[in-house]
Design brief:
The chain is α+β, with helices and mostly antiparallel strands and 217 residues long. The chain is built from 6 helices and 11 strands. Helix 3 packs across helix 4.
């Protein structure tokens, strides 16, 4: 089961779509989130996530290396928050936080697509972003031996904001994976919260979503 959710994490890390969404909260400058102990807080997107026992966050250096920052540049960037925000704001795909349940392999990835970095990005909505995501997810899943099928697609209120919630079910070697993507436009960025779990472990998407709350709560 842990292997399946690890594959699911890898899939979202290679998905880079065309920019999407009509701009809301326009001209909002990007600010990366922070992790303190077991809490990730995003001032930019207005929520925090408090992980349960057994969950761990990936370190800043590990996440930055995934975005191809070199070791030589990391020390300066990570020591200066303004420098980090500036460098991340230039990236097409930004990984802001990653957390995994070491017991079950369930995981959460908070990431952004920089809409201004893609030609014609303003033409898309969260719905069309989800459509493009489905195409790439199905293709990448097939290559990894995972059969994806759409379970639900709906607009929800989450942490005080409206999100498009799209949930897929994937099967591989008799194991079922549930994966939900919460999509919302913030400034020139598409916020994607990817939540993955294997229901057979007793962890559900809803139980993971309960770890989130609005900063205004």
């Amino acid at each position: 089961m842990k292997k399946l959710t690890a594959i699911a994490s890898a899939l979202i890390c290679v998905l880079t779509l065309a920019a999407c969404g009509n701009t809301t909260e326009k001209d909002k400058a990007f600010v990366c989130g922070t992790v303190t102990d077991n809490v990730f807080e995003s001032e930019f997107s207005g929520f925090k996530m408090t992980v349960s026992d057994g969950w761990v966050f990936s370190g800043e250096e590990e996440i930055m290396e995934m975005m191809d920052f070199t070791a030589d540049s990391l020390s300066e960037i990570l020591s200066d928050r303004e420098a980090k925000n500036l460098e991340l704001s230039k990236q097409k795909t930004i990984y802001d936080a990653m957390a995994v349940d070491q017991n079950t392999g369930s995981n959460v990835i908070v990431m952004y697509e920089n809409m201004s970095a893609s030609i014609g990005g303003s033409k898309y909505t969260p719905d069309s972003y989800a459509d493009a995501l489905e195409d790439q997810l199905t293709e990448a899943g097939a290559e990894a031996g995972m059969d994806y099928s759409l379970k639900s697609k709906e607009t929800i209120d989450f942490c005080g904001y409206e999100y498009l919630s799209v949930t897929w079910e994937a099967e591989s070697q008799g194991i079922t994976l549930d994966q939900s993507y919460l999509l919302r436009k913030v400034g020139d960025y598409m916020l994607i919260i990817c939540i993955s779990c294997v229901p057979q472990t007793g962890v559900t998407l809803d139980s993971i979503m309960d770890m989130f709350e609005s900063l205004e709560a």
